[in-house]
Amino acid sequence: MTRCLPFVLLVAIAATAATTVSMTSLLAQAQTEPDLWQFEDDDVEVETWGMLLRDQAGDLALFAAFATLALVGFFRKSEALKYVTLGAAVVYLGFGKSQLISVVNIYGLMTGNLPVFRYSLGWYLFAGFTVVTTVLWGRLYCGRVCAFGALTQLMDRVVPARLRVEVPAWLEARAGLVKYGLLGATLLYFLVTSEITAYRYVEPFWMFSRRGSAGMWIGLGALLVATVFVRNLYCRFLCPVGAALGLLSKLTVFRIKRWSECNTCKICEKTCEWGAIRGPQIVVSECVRCDDCERLYEDTARCPHWIILRRRPSPARTSS
Fold first, then answer.
1. CA distance 105 to 102
2. Count of C-beta atoms within a 10 Å radius of residue 280
3. Which end of the chain is more exposed for a tag (fewer CB within 10 A), N or C?
4. Burial of 170 from C-beta contacts in 10 A (0-12 / 13-18 / 19+)
5. Region label for 275, one of left (φ > 0), alpha (ψ between -120 and 50) or beta (otherwise)
6. How far from the centroid of its chain's Cα atoms is residue 50's Cα?
7. Are 121 and 204 in contact (CB under 8 A)?
8. What pLDDT digit, counting tens, does each position of 177-224 carry?
9. What are the backbone dihedrals phi and psi of residue 139, each rounded to the nearest 5 degrees, phi first?
10. Angle at which helices 240-248 and 103-111 pack, to 10 degrees?
11. Start-to-end CA span in the chain (Å)
């Protein structure tokens, strides 16, 4: 048995050597034979910020132009530019892009599940514009950027005034709390179930993508009919996003100025379409910076502040 071991070892070594030689010859043959398929090596292109900006330049430029229009109209207190902005919001942000701030974005903020930054530069510009303008001036987004709010404001321009129902001040203050309840209930439902589908039943923004069930379309129709009679119904009383931005507007830096005469004057309060002026107080969380009261402030023929100043005797007359 022990005498056979050297022979067995010699056989194993020889077999291994033969296998090695055959493998070496096969590799050499594969290297010398031409590649019949002739596939080119795929060069993986390295993604750069320049490429990303170039791919998204159109979206960024369009929104920058829209934002410029909105801000120019706001700073100039131009009613004409405001309605041009509202029309652009419906066409561009609504039916064109179906892009609105939604409670879904609040869900994403709560869970850290936001769009990938490098591929969503346009969305982050849009969201950043909304947050920054809210902190600086208040609910500017609600007043002239949100496509649904813009639609209802344009509806209000063509609906005969005789059809409108003015909500009493006491009811206005209480009904305005409903949207905060809806915001809290929607967020609680998400936290408990992790389901985001509830947004379709508290926001009508899906209408711009034209994807909804028969029941949802019937509910939307009822809401728009009700809006004929109660102006800006959804925005004032039901919108969870409006509630969230209302809370954020508590931080607003540049608020609407008030004169001492505002304690008794009711002109602006009667003019406000949003129920945001209650006596001498402007409720910041309800104000959407629609410019109506600010244009009245600048009207020297109607604002009591300027009328009183004109009637006040000058120091020269008093001394004489």
1. 5
2. 14
3. N
4. exposed
5. left
6. 26
7. no
8. 999 999 999 999 999 999 988 898 999 999 999 988 999 999 999 999
9. -75, 60
10. 60
11. 143
Cα dist. 269→87, 212, 235, 254, 262 in Å? 26, 38, 18, 20, 9
* Distances in whole angstroms, Cα of residue 97 to Cα of each of 73, 126, 237, 250: 22, 12, 26, 30
- Helices and strands of the chain, counted as H and E runs: 17, 2
* pTM of the predicted structure, to 2 decimals: 0.80
Instruction: Quote the radius of gyration of the chain (alpha carbons, Å).
Output: 33
Q: What is the pLDDT of residues 240-292, one digit of tens each?
A: 999 999 999 999 999 998 888 888 888 998 889 898 998 888 999 999 999 99
Q: What is the largest CA-CA distance in the chain?
A: 144
Listed residue (52, 226, 244, 54) closest to 146, CA to CA = 244
Distance CA 203, CA 218 (A): 14
Alpha-carbon distance values, 20 to 10, 12, 13, 16, 234 (Å) = 15, 12, 11, 6, 81
Sign of the four-CA dihedral 250, 252, 258, 260: positive
Q: Does residue 233 contact residue 120 with C-beta atoms inside 8 Å?
A: no
Residues making up the chain, counted from first to last: 320
User: HSE (CB half, 13 Å, CA atoms) of 291?
Assistant: 18
For tokens 């207190």, the residue is 77
